[in-house]
Amino acid sequence: MTDAEWVVVRPLLPVPGWMQGQGGQPESYCHRAMLDAIGSLVDNGIKWRAMPADFPPWDRVYAFFRRWRDRGLIREFHDRVRGQVRERAGHDALPTAGVIDSQSVKADAVVSAGTRGFDGGKLVNGRKRHVVVDTLGLLLGVCRRTSESGSDKIFVKPGCATVRR
After folding, report:
1. What is the Cα–Cα distance from 159 to 59, expressed in whole angstroms?
2. Which of 44, 98, 115, 124 has the most CB atoms in a 10 Å sphere around its CB?
3. Is residue 23 a contact partner of residue 32, using CB atoms and an 8 Å limit?
4. Using CA of residue 150, residue 162, residue 126, residue 98, what is the dihedral sign?
5. How far is CA 22 from CA 8, 15, 19, 56, 79, in A?
6. What count of other Cβ atoms lies within 10 Å of the Cβ of residue 111?
7. CA nearest neighbour of 46 among 32, 61, 31
8. 126 or 164, which is more confident?
9. Concatenated DSSP letters of the chain
10. Which residues make Cβ contacts (< 8 Å) with residue 98, sequence separation at least 6?
11. Measured between alpha carbons, how far is residue 63 from residues 11, 29, 31, 34, 79 in Å?
12. Backbone phi, psi, residue 5, to 5°
């Protein structure tokens, strides 16, 4: 992450509890180093244990990621960044419209039958994933289900609880 990117990202990060007087120990590694490590992992498609030596140890990076994921901080951070990008583009921070697309993905034979199905329209045995983006193409939500779950119109119904933001 460049210094210019860090200047933008830093104020969007949650403040650690120990800095707010909630107790606990200061974290051992800088948030910037952790975000750089996670960014490298995503960018290069490597496994956690294959983390290069110039980053913090893989188990610390994974624990940091898991803690943020479980507390919803990754989603919150993503939403803040998306809001800033939308405002800089001259739009409201919260989108009022979205675009839904789906993709059927083949599943290997070792994937349990309960988590995959047959998509008769595309002739694919596997899973179907739906992605919802705003009008700028920024991610709003993701939904994954078996391919045989029926029509895509089911996904569009209000209150679809399976969409993960």
Report:
1. 37
2. 124
3. no
4. positive
5. 26, 11, 7, 25, 25
6. 13
7. 61
8. 126
9. --HHHHHHHGGGSPPPGGGGTS--PPPSS-HHHHHHHHHHHHHHT--GGG--TTSS-HHHHHHHHHHHHHTTHHHHHHHHHHHHHHHHTTS-SS-S-EEEEEEEEE--TTS-GGG-EEETTTTEEEEEEEEEEETTS-EEEEEEEETTS--THHHHSTT-TT-B-
10. 132, 133, 134, 135, 140, 141
11. 22, 12, 13, 10, 22
12. -65, -40
Q: 25: which 2 tokens?
A: 């120990």
31/155: higher pLDDT: 31
